[in-house]
């Protein structure tokens, strides 16, 4: 626990409206939205006594002493909270590297990746999403992974180096790390070459892309399969990476996860899905099928981020929302690199990106809304 608010770790602050700024906290790699007047006060706090700081609050906000004391208390608690650094998870090393005789080769972007699994159960955590990328056995590969379970701990080795370990109830984190290693391998990048990764499904056309994000069950994956059937490229489903150097969204070629309630609809649009295997994921997601994405673009400029809300009674509309509102929605599930150069890139990306909220109930009207959006991009 940090016991002082001295030297609060502001590294970067950028205004996102007349009233608010977004602040990157270097020590915790967190982003918070603060009223600009509060931000100006915080910057002065460490140089003032508590009495003088309360007097400054009274003067700045024209409040009484009781209210000023409350504001001071809230600021102090915020500063202490944001300086608490999460302890880094130690990577375990296996006592022995288990034999991994189940071998698959996957190919994307002219890169061949060899993945060796110890058991079918371990393989099932990964393979279904990438089975459409399978190629015949190769004598050479660009990157080799070994994935195995030892003493209820999952391990990933990349070119015989341990890159992570996860206990059995951390399969989501395990899959996230493997996804990151895949995009690094497919594009010959390091983890911190990527500005960030967003929990979003992304489509593109004519070098413009749009990310669709939202709460689970609001139809992001169904939405992109509908749009894929109408000529759009699917850049990513649920894992949308943005590269720092050009701020473009890059293709992550995992299959689209189609939930059971959407089988009938999507099978009409993509008949091959009918013969696909079903897989049980968990109680929340139920059974899914995997649909290979279609994309003629490996990267595209991110023109917008859309928060998706499906309802049977919703009016079909897409409207702009404030940056503040959008960030509160997308940041909790996003990963942004902790490097300062990436934090600066993220703030630049925020400034150039438009944010929207999409409410829909009718698929045809949804497609019309997105078509109009891309038509306007082409004109601009």
Number of domains: 3
Q: Can you identify the CATH class of the largest domain? A: Alpha Beta
| CATH architecture annotation of the largest domain | 3-Layer(aba) Sandwich
The whole-number mean of residue pLDDT values reads 88
Number of strands: 22
Major sheet characteristics: 7 strands, mixed
Give me the CATH fold name of the largest domain.
Rossmann fold
Rg measurement, Å: 24 Å
- The backbone outline, from C-alpha atoms, is globular
**Class from secondary-structure proportions:** alpha+beta
Number of helical stretches of at least 4 residues: 10
Strand content: 25-35%
Distance separating the two termini? 51 Å
**In percent, how helical is the residue content?**
25-40%
Describe this protein with a few key phrases.
single chain, six-stranded mixed sheet, Rossmann fold, globular, disordered N terminus, 3 domains, 22 strands, alpha+beta, 380 residues, seven-stranded mixed sheet
List the helices and strands and how they pair.
Layout: E1 10-15, E2 20-25, E3 30-35, H1 36-45, H2 50-61, H3 65-82, E4 102-108, E5 111-117, H4 120-124, E6 134-135, E7 143-150, E8 153-158, E9 161-167, H5 171-187, E10 194-198, E11 201-205, E12 208-213, H6 220-228, E13 233-236, E14 240-243, E15 248-250, E16 256-259, H7 263-269, E17 279-282, E18 286-291, E19 299-310, E20 317-320, H8 323-330, E21 335-336, H9 340-352, E22 354-360, H10 363-379
Parallel strand pairs: 5-7, 12-19, 19-22
Antiparallel strand pairs: 1-2, 2-3, 4-5, 4-6, 7-8, 8-9, 10-14, 10-21, 11-12, 11-13, 15-19, 16-18, 17-18, 20-22
Helix pairs in contact: 1-2, 2-3
